[in-house]
Amino acid sequence: MTETSTSDRPTALVTGAGRGIGRAIVLRLAREGYAPIVVDLDAEAAEKVAAEAGGRAVALDVTDTDAVRELAASVPNLDVLVNNAGIFPPAPIAEVALAQFRAVMDVNVLGPLNLIQCFLPQLSAARGAVVNIASTAAKAPVPGTAAYSPSKAALISLTKLCAVELASTGVRFNAIGPGGVQTEGTASVSADPKREARFNELLPLGRRALPDDIADVVPFLVGSDGRYVTGQVIYVDGGLTESTIPFLQAAQRI
User: Fold this and answer.
1) Strand ordering across the sheet containing 35-40
2) How much is the pLDDT for 214?
3) Does the structure show a pLDDT above 50 at 211?
4) Is 172 helix (H, G, I), strand (E, B) or coil?
């Protein structure tokens, strides 16, 4: 476990932080002056990012309540929680095994709830902020992803419920809905240059997102500039979810 002193800095815990969007969020928050706690199921990946950011690495299964409680007991102060950990195994909805569906819901929905419940005392004391990383799939379901779209829709609903029901704690809850993002987990999607070029041409902003495009929104939501924002979803998708007509026009040209 890698640790640095956090006594003089606000603390931010990010799950699924060993790569991709999670790593970018850690590095962005570190630049903003936060002491990051880098949480990932992959201990080696967490250690690497913690070394980059000058933070603490924790190997953790977000669905393991006992393990999350143990971690919470070791973190006296927490200002920011970013629930980024998620899985998206593909499967047709008519055939997906219930065990797989449950596993996705466990990580993508119950995992964030687990962290929120266990760290609520610290977040309340700090009048902190929670950001849940959802997806455009919550708004525009993606066929063939089985539980993924339902899980992200549920995560957004959880975000809104927490914002209302837990308002008295002083903690703000918001969500970010990324669209297509270039990460290690999505590399196969953009591997075909011609296909990728066609996709990018249809996006209003002309390109697929990079992890930093998502990470750069987080400081606003957790900082003083976002002090009156709670229960909201910001879709950081380059206009993807508003591009129905261009996609339909492109389909007619095929």
Assistant:
1) 56-59, 35-40, 11-14, 80-83, 129-133, 172-178, 233-236
2) 96
3) yes
4) strand
User: Residue written as tokens 């609520």?
Assistant: 120
E strands, the chain, are 11-14, 35-40, 56-59, 80-83, 129-133, 172-178, 233-236
Residue ranges of domains in the chain: 11-187+208-241
DSSP state of 81: E
Q: Is the pLDDT of residue 207 over 80?
A: yes
Element (H, E) at 215: helix 211-215
Average pLDDT over residues 142-160: 97
Would the pLDDT of 243 be above 90? no
Range 11-187+208-241 has CATH code 3.40.630.30: no
Query: Rounded to whole angstroms, how far apart are CA atoms 192 and 179?
Result: 18
* Residues annotated catalytic, as ranges: 148
How far lies 61's CA from each of 9, 69, 70, 121, in Å?
26, 12, 12, 21
Considering the chain, what percentage of its residues have pLDDT values greater than 70? 95
Matching residue, tokens 């495009």: 213
Rounded to the nearest 5 percent, the helix, strand and coil shares of the chain are: 50, 15, 35
